[in-house]
Amino acid sequence: MFRTLLAVLAIAISSPSWAVQPDEILDDPVLESRARDISAGLRCLVCRNESIDESNADLARDMRLLVRERLVEGDSNEDAVAYIVDRYGEYVLLRPTTEGANIILWVAAPVMFLIALGSAVIYLRRRARAPEADKSGLSPEEKRRLQELLKE
Prior knowledge:
By secondary structure, this protein is an all-alpha fold. It has helices at 2-14, 29-40, 58-72, 77-88, 102-129, 140-151.
């Protein structure tokens, strides 16, 4: 009995929890499926890296309802997403576009990595070609001067 209870609890904890409330679900299964697809790609502005489909925040609920409202009014998926982006900004997309100024964000990390890698290669090559440091120690004159400084 105890093992069964633990197994059920483990499954309940490990399974994804959807925050969509029963009163939000559309009667038309096709529209509901489209709404879920759209919601999975939209970021909750309160929870940051959760989709609005997974978030329990009030703002996420409002966004889910707004998506469903747009679909019921006859918008395509792209139109519904565009409406949400116009209203909340491009940050709401979990997968930002690769157009316009966003191309800088997509390209910056690989470019910076290549610059760092090139700098490391240049540094290591120059270091390998550098002359070996003189390990003979101090000259007699330097030893004498050191002794004088230590006495002071």
